[in-house]
Design brief:
286 residues, mainly alpha, 79% helix
């Protein structure tokens, strides 16, 4: 083969860059969809921003002394704080759609058995995060604020600033939402081979101690609220161990059914482009 033949056989440089450019365009489109959905939800909720903040502050105002109320120590706080809450709530509500867009972007590059397993993990992680936030609002907040308001020294009137209150409750929402992701972490540890079910069971005493330490750090220093966080975390750890065996069994069944040659290779460029087109077509049909 001559030098000229080699030059004719080599693909143009632009063709090599085209798949990368198409992925960037795909990522841009999905990010724009996420921003659009969040913006629409935010605009719908914006007229109710003050009502939403009143509902959020309910667990605290229910325990404030008679004649006391929340305060705003900054000039723009009465407007900005409900605005901030509405924006965070819009992202919170749009989380399933956000995770779906992330999934649709990365799915073509995953192995086939991974695509079957990742989707249930994404769905369950969303449900668990919502469950953790609901647990914080309905169970933890009343206990926390009842404790804080009852321990105020004589002569001190409890009047919480709305800005610091919002930062405090958002921190707790995130902390409890993350704590309820323990089953997902447990499943991933076993699924990736970083740990085994028996190994995790042998570490159960350490997990229980760690759960109570986390409860001590995230809740007031009383045994009731610490237990309310530590016990669910421990039970979720046990649930994760049970489900990790199911995920590992499913992974083994997929490998045996599809054959090692089919499972062990990722999608090539043509297959990835075809998968992206299929996902786009499904979304347009919806």
């Amino acid at each position: 083969m001559t030098h000229s033949d080699n030059q004719q056989a080599a693909p143009p440089a632009g063709d090599a860059e085209q798949p990368f450019i198409s992925h960037l365009i795909e990522l841009r489109d999905r990010l724009l969809r996420i921003v659009l959905v969040v913006a629409v939800i935010f605009l719908v909720l914006m007229p109710f921003s003050n009502t939403l903040f009143s509902a959020l502050s309910g667990p605290l105002t229910a325990h404030l002394p008679e004649g006391s109320s929340m305060i705003a120590i900054e000039v723009a706080s009465p407007f900005l704080i409900p605005f901030k809450l509405t924006l965070v709530l819009a992202v919170f509500i749009a989380m399933p759609y956000l995770l779906y867009q992330i999934w649709a972007f990365i799915a073509p590059g995953l192995y086939r058995h991974e695509r079957r397993l990742v989707m249930p993990l994404l769905a369950s992680s969303t449900v668990l995060f919502y469950a953790g936030a609901a647990f914080a609002y309905y169970v933890v907040f009343p206990l926390v604020f009842a404790f804080f308001t009852s321990t105020a020294p004589d002569g001190v009137t409890v009047m919480t600033d709305i800005s610091r209150y919002l930062d405090f409750v958002l921190t707790l929402f995130f902390a409890f939402g993350a704590a309820f992701e323990v089953p997902i972490v447990t499943v991933l540890l076993v699924w990736t081979g970083m740990a085994t079910q028996d190994g995790l069971r042998s570490k159960r005493p350490y997990v229980i101690v760690a759960a109570f330490v986390v409860g001590m750090l995230l809740t007031p220093p009383d045994i009731i609220s610490q237990t309310l966080l530590a016990v669910p975390v421990w039970l979720l750890f046990e649930l994760g161990i049970v489900f990790s065996g199911w995920f590992v069994a499913m992974k083994g069944n997929d490998t045996a059914a599809e054959g090692e040659s089919e499972v062990s290779r990722p999608l090539n460029e043509d297959e990835m482009e075809a998968e992206l087109d299929r996902i786009e077509t499904e979304e347009e049909n919806r």
